[in-house]
Hints:
Distance between the termini: 27 Å
Number of strands: 9
Number of helices: 4
CATH topology: Rossmann fold
Largest sheet: 6 strands, mixed
Helix content: 10-25%
Radius of gyration: 17 Å
Shape: globular
Structural class: alpha/beta
CATH class: Alpha Beta
Number of domains: 1
Bound molecules: guanosine-5'-monophosphate
Strand content: 25-35%
CATH architecture: 3-Layer(aba) Sandwich
Amino acid sequence: MNHDALLFQDLESVLYTREQLQTSIAEMGKRITRDYQGKSPVMVCILKGASLFFCDLIREIDLPLEIDFMATSSYGSSTISSGEVKLIKDLDRSIHGRDVLLVEDIVDTGMTLNYLKKILMGRGAASLRIVTLLDKPSRRVAPLTVDYICFEVPDAFVVGYGLDFDEKYRNLPEVGILSPRVYAAAEKEKGAEAPHS
Length: 197
Ligand code: 5GP
């Protein structure tokens, strides 16, 4: 997919290209490999947004790791988070005594990961660290330490490489800022709410 492709026309700007994403993910994979020498961590993908990042990241980690998946949905609108998070898919196996790495697409208010962290520590994980492709620290509400970050992003609504708007744009191979005319059009068509900016 090149920059003339249909999906790219809805971006205001590209933030990170395929090459930049892959370079940063490879470096992160090496760091995790070093930090977890002699261990067999459980890597947990938070669906659906982190799925592309997760698949690329685990292939850059040279450890006998295991994978599992969780999914959450947030109550409230896309503009105002109520702070309540609902677990809609749980892990398949126990993480008692295991070293867990929670892999997220973007940390925004921090509420989702704060909630998941509490649940997993309550189940007796030996350790728990947070890995994210993107971090938006300017929007943080919940106290949260993010251990591995590929990129910091400005306070704008970003899509691509797994991140969606209204379930679209996940297959865009790069990360970019969604053009405001896209949510204006979506609002007009079906009363969808614009994401926060
Ligand atoms: P938090 O609980 O940290 O506020 O929310 C994290 C979730 O909000 C992310 O997993 C993602 O689904 C969504 N989110 C936050 N900011 C953005 C953004 O800029 N773009 C997209 N596509 N999703 C976002």
